[in-house]
Amino acid sequence: MPNSKLPSAIANPITEDDIANYLANTPDFFERHADMLAAVQLTSPHSQRAVSLQERQANMLREKIKLLELRIMDMIRNVNDNTALSDKLLRWARTLFLNTEAAALPDLMAAELADQFAVPQVGIKVWGVDPAYAGAAFAQGVSEDARLFASSLTEPYCGVNTGLEAINWLPDPKAAASLAILPLRAGQVGSTAPAFGLLVLASPDAQRFNSTMGTDFLARIAELASAALSPLR
Q1: Which stretches of 91-213 are assigned E, i.e. beta strand?
Q2: Tens-digit pLDDT profile for residues 201-228
Q3: For residue 149, how many other CB atoms are within 10 A of its CB?
């Protein structure tokens, strides 16, 4: 009658995980069998030729170094881009602070935004102004619906042109494919105070102001613009 008992090695064959666990828990294995390291041959990821374990490890290390270099370069580019944006924001703010004619401020603000940040079109409207400025173009042509919409925004809106009233404040509304709409109000961004104006930035590029972009920088522009326009109210 055949023996029904199988050797344990056959009944429980050694798996790759068993080997990996053994090597991981036996760090001195390759010290006792150093010649095995030199004999191990692996396939190169860059060709079909066989390479030694040391060469394969060196290749992997070089790949990791390249990835780290790319990440560092991306970080440097981001820092440079942020520095350039900050410089433009400071120049824009400086121009506003040097202005001494309150009635000219909205148009100056829009023109400098277009120039400093290469925005193809900029529009601005301000309401609830002092009677001395009520006849200015920037204080006219805003419906109650537009004012309510502005007050409903607690942060800048970015997205495609959906035909909002504010696009009619632009020099060429038909050329506006994407928009950034910045509510102007007293206090910081996120305030629930009623808005007293809107800044509209527009581009023919549908991705220039898209719904997934961050709005922190636009929020800073809105805060500075709101503060600068306080003499009109």
Answers
A1: 121-126, 157-160, 178-184, 197-203
A2: 999 999 999 989 889 999 999 999 999 9
A3: 18
Indicate the length of the chain as a whole number.
Answer: 233
pTM of the full structure: 0.67
Task: Tally the C-alpha atoms within 13 A of residue 165's C-alpha that lie toward its C-beta.
Answer: 12
Distance between CA atoms of 191 and 223, rounded to whole angstroms?
Answer: 11
Q: How far, in Å, CA of 130 to CA of 24, rounded?
A: 78
| Half-sphere exposure in the Cβ direction for 80 (13 Å, CA) | 6
The one-letter amino acid at 61: L
Residue 125 phi/psi, 5° resolution?
-140, 145
Instruction: Name the amino acid, one letter, at 230.
Output: S
Neighbour tally for 146: CB within 10 Å: 19
* Gap between the Cα atoms of 111 and 122, Å rounded: 7
| Residue that the structure tokens 């290749």 belong to | 59
